[in-house]
Amino acid sequence: MQLEQQHSVKPNSGGWLRVIGLGPGDPALLAPAAKAALNEAEDVIGYRTYIQLAGPFRDDQRVQDSDNRVELERARHAFQLAATGRRVVIVSSGDPGVFAMATAVMEALEQAKDPAWDSVDLQIIPGISAAQAAAARIGAPLGHDFCTLSLSDNLKPWSVIARRLQLAAEADLVIALYNPSSRARPHQFSEALALLREHRAPETPVILGRSIGRADEQVFVTTLAEVDPAQVDMRTVIIIGSSQTRIIQTATGRRWVYTPRWYPAGK
Ligand code: SAH
Fold this sequence. Notes:
The protein is α/β, with parallel strands linked by helices. It is built from 7 helices and 13 strands.
């Protein structure tokens, strides 16, 4: 496949669609390309909380916030607007391609019935994902092989989640868990912990990053034995260490967590 392919279609009458990542919430961690798209946008679409993070907006900008559960509708609506020549931004938290809107936009494009959508000038602008932002606060826990898993079973069966957790644990990957629990699904993080405890040592470092980059940010370092599901909510990303992940303390008392670049032979 040629990389140039995506530029071979002529953009339509000035409209475009940008799917941007806001990063964890701190404006300093927002990519300049995403900022420029927000500045040039006529329509800004997204979940309420994210729209608030992306603002303030000018009077000439139309802001359309919506519920978190209607991603596909929101993506279709954005295509419709862009196809009529408007400059449209869809906002996601973190990275738009990590459990977020870029994927819904791709689904909408694949299912599109309106040929005008194919010629919409579409760009995905990446952002710093929650796991990366949390990792940076505490050292380098993602410094070796890692994976990300969403614990939400809205769109996939729990049996798939459980199997992936088990295999990731067996493979000794560092695991970043997104969407750990919600009022609708309070038990999933506890179930995930029970599974992980079968495969990993009780002293395995666990990092809880809550509201990273926002005013109420909290970062806890605990262990697999001691982590308490009550400390975890939908605004938390969890990093479960591998067998190699270490906690170090400097002379000033500062604690860091990292996973070394090397891995012992024969483990
Ligand atoms: N696209 C986002 C993830 C969306 S899924 C990203 O790349 O970060 C939503 C989940 O992401 C939340 O349940 C939480 O686990 C995590 N998350 C998003 N923003 C966060 C933040 N600022 N601090 C901690 N976790 C966050």
